[in-house]
Amino acid sequence: MDALWIFPGQGGQYAGMLKQVPAALRQHVETLLDLPLLDTTAGYADSVQLQVSITLLQVAQVQMIQKMGFRPRLAAGHSLGVFAAAYALDCLALDDLFKIVKQRAELMQQAYPVGYGMGVIVGLTRAEVTQLVAQVTTTAKPVFVSNQNAEDQVALSGHLVAIDQVLELAKAQGAAKALRLNVPVPSHSPLMHDVAEKLQQSLAKVTFNRPHGIYLANDNGHAARQIIPVRRDLGDNLVHPVYFESMMAVATNYAPDVIINFAPGHPFKQVLAQKFDEQHQLYLAQFSKADIHYLLEKWERGSNL
Questions:
Q1: CB of 82 within 8 A of CB of 12?
Q2: What is the full DSSP assignment across 58-109?
Q3: Among 100, 155, 211, 262, which residue's CB has the most CB atoms within a 10 Å radius?
Q4: Phi then psi for 224, rounded to 5 degrees?
Q5: What are the DSSP E strand ranges found in 160-241?
Q6: Residue 69 in domain
Q7: Which SS3 state, helix, strand or coil, does residue 47 take?
Q8: In this predicted model, what pLDDT tens digit does every residue of 18-61 receive, in sequence order?
Q9: Same domain, residue pair 242 and 279
């Protein structure tokens, strides 16, 4: 079975999502990081709690599926999801993974503790959004065109006042949707340069293994099979937009027959339906462990016929 595993980033979190995580794994991570995880709405207002918790949930799901005997041919992480994607391909050891994720979150939170974030516009092209941003951005209150999740879905990163101004202009221009995202920092913009530089320095000291599969890079969608491009993408993707649409376009070239969407949430359901209309798709947040095992085994038998 040729499977594509997709790991979302921030935005789909919800109170209680760590109930799915085995107690031993959660305790190990909390002890390792000296970080009691709150798993509450208030707790997830904190970037460190949020990023570590999402990664923990995804790692628990990776381990669950691996114990069932399944591994990915391709792995694609969106923003924070790159770390679980790298772990799923055996690039990173568990403890190194969580130490880096915690440091990443701390650096991001320290750089922009308040007043910054992200937004999304649906229904306008990237060129149209770029024109709106040019009307608003200033040195004091900058805003940037950020992630491209679909042809007509463009993210913004920057100062919240500037983001709100762009969102209002987008609505006036006929956008189908224009709203803030539940992300408390201006990810994937030049504002994250210093954070990315420090993160790259830390990653240079971490042992990486060659991926056991194909890693799809955030900034260009390219397929990576070596350590260097994976390490680079984990370190500097905060500075660049995530071109998820390009990542999925590259994935179609490998013709996966199963797509597994990891929790939390299902932010890419619409774009995946457009790109992969014949493949089996599984959203882990919607199924029990027993049902997940049943479906994967069923599809595995079908792919071997």
A1: no
A2: HHHHHHHHHHTT---SEEEE-TTHHHHHHHHTT-S-HHHHHHHHHHHHHHHH
A3: 262
A4: -115, 135
A5: 177-180, 214-216, 223-224
A6: yes
A7: helix
A8: 998 999 999 999 999 999 999 999 999 898 999 999 999 999 99
A9: yes
Facing residues of 3 across strands? 258
Q: Give the pLDDT confidence score for residue 304 in this predicted structure.
A: 62
Q: How distant, in Å, are the alpha carbons of 91, 143, 151, 212, 246 from that of 126?
A: 33, 14, 8, 34, 14
Q: What six digits make up the tokens of 270?
A: 């619409």
Domain extent at residue 98: 3-111+190-303
CATH number at residue 257: 3.40.366.10
Helix-strand-coil percent breakdown of the chain, rounded to 5?
Answer: 50, 15, 35
The backbone region for 115, taken as left when phi is positive above 0, alpha when psi lies in -120 to 50, beta otherwise, is left
Nearest to 184 by CA among 7, 60, 42, 55: 42
Is 48 within 8 Å of 109 (Cβ atoms)?
Answer: yes
What's the Rg (C-alpha) of the chain?
Answer: 19
DSSP state of 192: G
Q: Residue 247 domain-assigned?
A: yes
Write the CB contacts of 134 (distance below 8 Å, at least 6 apart in sequence): none
Could you list the beta-strand ranges (E) of 115-257.
116-122, 143-150, 153-159, 177-180, 214-216, 223-224
| Residue 108: both structure tokens together | 């991001």
- Separation of alpha carbons 195 and 77, rounded Å: 19
pTM: 0.93
